[in-house]
Amino acid sequence: MKLSIAQIAAACGGHVIGNADYIVNRLLIDSRSLFEADNTMFCALRTEAADGHRYIYNMYAQGVRAFLVDNMVCDAATFPEAAFVVVESVEQAIYSIAMQARAALEHVCFIGITGSVGKTVIKEQLFQALRGQVRIQRSPRSWNSRLGVALSITELQPDIDYAIIEVGIDRAGYMQRLAQLVRPAIGVFMPITEEHAAGFSSIEQKAQEKALLFAGCRQVVSVGSPQLHAAYVQAPVIQVETNEEAVAAVAQLLGVTPAADVFAPSNRIDVREGVNDCVILFDQFTPDYRSLLSALDFMRRRSTSTRSNTVILSEVFGADSAAVLNMLYRFGINRVITIGSEAYANAPSTIALQHAASVSQFLATFDANRFSSETILIFGRGLQPVKDMLAVPRHDSIMEVNLDALVHNFNYYRSLLRPTTGLVAMVKASAYGVGAIEVAKTLQAQGAAMLAVAVIEEGIELRRGGISMPIVVLNPVTGNYKALFDNRLEPSVFSMRELSTLLDAAHSCGVDCFNAHIKLDTGMHRVGFVESELPQLITTLQSARGIRVASIFSHLATADCPDMNDYTELQLTTFQRMSQAIVDALPYPVKRHILNTAGIMRYPEYQYDMVRLGIGLYGVSPLDSMPGDLRPVATLRSTIISIKHWPAGTTIGYGRRGRLSRPSVIATIPIGYADGINRHLGRGAASFVVRGAECPTVGNICMDQCMIDITDVPTAAIGDPVEIYGPQMPVQRLAATLDTIPYELLTAVSPRIHRIYFRE
To answer: Given this model, what pLDDT does residue 48 score?
Structure first.
């Protein structure tokens, strides 16, 4: 895309303030992803979750000179070199700009891809197969949403012949507009399944809606779902069964011989613990310049001042080595290790450049001591052995943490709040068992107002992990108040004794002023000031020097109990009365919060200034009815390590408590009660999932192993994954079996179970 400010304004019906001749080459909607300021237009999107206009000052300071806004929230004179396009709706304007960009690409043959599953993989395989034969671009990563499709169009260059655009929709009524934007000549229709079906009345409606993308196609390649596809596609259809056949069919339609080295990329970036306090980011996406840019953006958001930045990469498709090195330099990379036939040369002086001719050569000379306290991005094909050498060896059982699901849940709850309501994210108990540092980094990037931990050690761990945002310590009683102040942690104060101790400690440590959070007991009856203590508390707060009340809060005891609404409402009334007395007595504004996850859903009128999001953040509703919008964050998995066939009557495990009533196939998995699997889940009380089938436990749960019956899964094999809980086996079901709550199961998982984090 290459449009002047005047052309952009004309395309979207906006008016210009500033230089109308300024040229824009790219649109940016996420201020954190800025790479090149020149010729970038920052689009200040306003959503239920955030307002992009807040970042205009920051973007201008970083060199951005073009802005798409829906009102002038500031004086244009403050930005003398900037050009603004003012519109009614920034989102609508982005779509209009994309239409303008699409109009300049009439010579390009568009290939449109939609379906329920496999869209990104087939898009990448098509790109790999065709990239060396024709001039082609495709939409980045999984940019298949309404905004993603529009932005993909604006990134296309005019000197291409083909463009592959992936289109995803999650509800009826969305495809028509996107179809008008993409207007593909060739379509690829992937299988229609039940995934993401909440926005459709039926799977038939889902197929019909997605088929609208192909209204003007001259040919559609159908992969799976032949009956659904045929019912709604009007263009001629080529029916195939596999991705490989689909790639061949598209290549034949284009008259091109596809490349042979096509592979199915992973759309995940895995985050793993590495040797010597390193963090490993492993990306197996199609390795071209645009994908490397996305990976570096992800890396930047996880970098800390305590770790240097290293990139290990193999071939980068179609990219000049000088351009790659320049990009690495601009992302602050300290060391680059290239693996492959061609070494890079002339790196900037700030980058240490190393080379290995092959993976085997790298491994042959590998020395773990060469890596210490680094964030290491491993990018490219064939580098799995490199990742295995650098990552800490893991248990055969793992907890996978889906950071995309975490972001989704955070945004879901934020959508229920007023735009001015801050969201305090609970990351105590190692973020409910899934790992606090990676969760905190993700929440910090999402704009959480504050993080909450239980004890000072948890807060210190987050600070050491690079977390800079406010952190409240809910149980701050400690013998080391100096560490509390040194790490800028904000204590919760729940008694006059603790308040006195904190004030004395601050004086002893030379702390002039610190933020504190006043805890009121409105009915939980654990800790907190009761109403009779308020006069003394207020007098102390008014006269004390060095303390500033950042917030007043309380905790609801029965927000998740609809049969106790009267008690919850009594607490809410008590909190209003008690907190107002403190607010009225202090000479500065003080924030208030009382709602927990259940309260957010049931009592939105009591949002005050902030709310606290706990278990809902991790995809578990505290209410009996789980919102369909929540996604599970944690998946606990193990692996089949043994399979044995036993006749009826055989006994299995300790105490011979598992007695087989039929000839059975029994699998052993290396996870037990030392890993957090409660012994009460044994002897058939629970089932774990193998190849989509629920397999009951057999015999007692052992310390490090347990057994499951896989008789009804004849294709099961050693090495198969076993889901203990996750998308197929909700943790709530296992909790119900134990007559407990999901919190207990999540936080019980042993530290020896490695947490693997990923984003798509």
So the answer is: 66
**Residue 191: which of 140, 117, 254 has the closest Cα?**
117
| pLDDT at 51 (0 to 100) | 85
3-class state of residue 486 by DSSP: helix
Sign of torsion over alpha carbons 728, 733, 737, 741: positive
Strands 693-698, 687-690: pairing is: antiparallel
With a threshold of 0.70, does the pTM exceed it? yes
Among the options 119, 428, 519, 591, which is catalytic? Answer: 428
Which amino acid is residue 706, in one-letter code? Answer: C
How does residue 73 score in pLDDT terms, banded at 50, 70 and 90? low
Per the listing, tokens 């052995």 go with 385
Q: Quick one: CA torsion of 734, 737, 741, 744, rounded to 10 degrees?
A: -60
The rounded distance, in Å, linking the Cα atoms of 44 and 85 is: 11
Of 18, 14, 62, nearest to 42 by C-alpha is 62
Task: Give the residue from 4, 55, 9 showing the smallest Cα distance to 30.
Answer: 55
Token output for 283: 């990306």
709 contacts 683 by C-beta, under 8 angstroms: no
pLDDT in tens, 328-338: 999 999 999 99
Q: What is the dihedral of CA 448, 454, 457, 461, to 10 degrees?
A: -20
Distance, CA of 756 to CA of 438 (rounded, Å)? 10
How far is residue 54's CA from residue 421's CA, in Å, rounded to a whole number? 15
95 counts as catalytic: no
Q: Looking at the predicted structure, is the pLDDT value of residue 672 above 60?
A: yes
Given a cut of 80, whether residue 760 has pLDDT beyond it is no
Q: 466, 439, 406: which is closest to 277 by C-alpha?
A: 466
pLDDT of residue 302: 85
Q: Are 597 and 614 in contact (CB under 8 A)?
A: yes
Residue-level pLDDT at 644 = 97
Query: What is the three-state SS of 286-351?
Result: CCEHHHHHHHHHHHHCCCCCCCEEEEEECCCECCCHHHHHHHHHHCCCCEEEEECCCCCCCCCCCC
What's residue 625's pLDDT? 66
Report pLDDT digits (tens) over 180-232.
Answer: 999 999 999 999 998 767 789 999 999 999 999 999 999 999 998 888 898 99
Q: What is the pLDDT of residue 345?
A: 87
The answer on pLDDT for 467 being more than 60 is yes
Spatial distance between the Cα atoms of 593 and 417, rounded to a whole number of angstroms? 13
| Separation of alpha carbons 492 and 226, rounded Å | 60
Q: Which of 163, 41, 18, 22 is nearest to 94 (CA)?
A: 41
Average pLDDT over every residue of 382-396: 90
Residue 428 among the catalytic residues: yes
Q: Indicate if the alpha-carbon torsion angle 691, 692, 697, 702 is positive or negative.
A: positive
Note whether 20 and 36 are within 8 A (CB).
no
* Domains identified in the chain and CATH numbers: 3-90 (3.40.1390.10), 105-254 (3.40.1190.10), 269-390 (3.90.190.20), 400-618 (3.20.20.10), 634-759 (2.40.37.10)
For residue 739, the SS3 value is coil
Residues 6+ away with beta carbon under 8 Å from 183 = 102, 110, 216
Q: Hey, which residues does 178 pair with through a beta bridge? A: none
